[in-house]
Amino acid sequence: MRIKSGGVTDVGRVRSNNEDCYRIVPEMGLFVLSDGMGGEAHGEIASAMAVETVVKHCLEGENNPAAPIFGETQPGWSAHTKRLASAVHLANRCIFESAAQNPEQQGMGATVTAAWITGHELSLAHVGDSRAYILRAGALQQLTSDHSLVAEQVRRGILTAAQADESDMQSVLLRALGTNPQIEVDAEDHLVFPKDVLLLCSDGLTRMIMEPEIAGALQSEPDSAKAAARLVDLANERGGADNTTVIVVHTDTETRNWFSWLRFGQRKHSNGNGHAGGK
């Protein structure tokens, strides 16, 4: 599988600082996005800690498969999904302990949505209301479930989706990194196919733009970095009420010709990392 990716983060039009953070590790096919919370309680520290902990733990696992696994795992999970879920458990512990040791950080937390692509396998791990989508054959499918009060009310039939979109309680999370010593992590294995487009985003995007428009933007722009920038621009055009961070990943079949074989399969990777800190 050939992967091309790009990411953008932006403070938006209302907030004064950026608590979002993301990281792309192209040589691993690893993508991590986090949205900090806490404002004066240093949400930008929490999101940066989440991203860096996940990346570091996954790198450690690649170099040493016997490295410890944290948290509960499911028997059906792939090795990469187990490692990714473990990384999120570790990130939760690091944020919680940092807040406990530093009074000025009390109350900080973060969401995290992480994806790891290996061949045709996609591993996902998720806590909070940042999201992962896949665009396949023109249809946009949300792969993650929001751990928010309004999302739970929609699942229980208390609110309609339209009512949830208008609710003043959208920012209330039921699950976030750093708020408790232990965390429940959603993790899943998926298959990816050539021409799929993977999207990771903070809620600054999904609160400003409806899913059909997101799908249209992804379909109309084949360049990953430009697609990510276009989505962020659209969120800002709608008011930019929050920080917005977007990672777009295009997948395709690996092309091999006689020249590439002469180069012994050497491959070029486009790198992209992003970090900013407020919400």
Mean pLDDT: 90
The level-1 CATH class: Alpha Beta
Distance between the termini: 35 Å
* Low-pLDDT residue intervals, each spanning 5 or more residues: 258-272
Which secondary-structure class do the elements indicate? alpha+beta
**Secondary-structure element order, as H and E?**
EEEHHEEEEEHHEEHHHEHE
Architecture (CATH level 2) name:
4-Layer Sandwich
Q: Classify the fold: give the CATH topology.
A: Phosphatase 2c, domain 1
| Shape category | globular
Question: Sheet with the most strands?
Answer: 7 strands, antiparallel
Radius of gyration, whole Å: 18 Å
CATH superfamily: PPM-type phosphatase domain
User: Into how many domains do the coordinates divide?
Assistant: 1
Strand content: 25-35%
Number of helices: 8
Q: Based on DSSP secondary structure assignment, what is the total number of beta strands?
A: 12
The percent of residues in helical segments reads 25-40%
General description of the model:
About 5% of the residues have low confidence. The protein has eight helices and twelve strands. α6 runs antiparallel to α7. A hairpin with a 2-residue loop joins β7 and β8. The two termini are 35 Å apart. The protein is an alpha+beta fold and 279 residues long. It has a single domain, classed as 4-Layer Sandwich (Phosphatase 2c, domain 1), CATH 3.60.40. The protein is globular, with a radius of gyration of 18 Å. The strands form two sheets. Strands 2, 3, 4, 5, 6, 9 and 12 form a seven-stranded antiparallel β-sheet that branches. A five-stranded antiparallel β-sheet has the order 1-11-10-7-8.
